[in-house]
Amino acid sequence: SKLQKLEQTNETMQSALGKVSQGIIIVGEDGQISFVSEAAARSLDKFFAGEKRDAGNLPDELARRAEHYRSLSAATDEFSTPPEFAAGSLQSELRVSFSYNSTSRETILL
Q1: By C-alpha distance, which of 33, 39, 34, 32 is closest to 16?
Q2: Which helix (H) or strand (E) segment is 9 a member of?
Q3: Over 70: is that where the pLDDT of 16 sits?
């Protein structure tokens, strides 16, 4: 059926995205994480290890920035790229870029 084919395609895409070396996080309109790649999960654990958060939620600073970008993007038809978010130390750094999908109303963190 079409539903089964769509579910198989979704599983294939999630499997492929999970294996990319760049971290990918997809956050729904409700602010909940709907997808996180293995690389992104490792980065969240490394750079936000001291922050307590519920499963399915971004660390506070990332959540605030993602919501701010989502609300700006949803309110206008104009595309604007926010500055990257950076966290880390002299030894290693995490850089996060944001993208908003107006069709699915999801915010994508790369």
Answers
A1: 39
A2: helix 2-18
A3: no
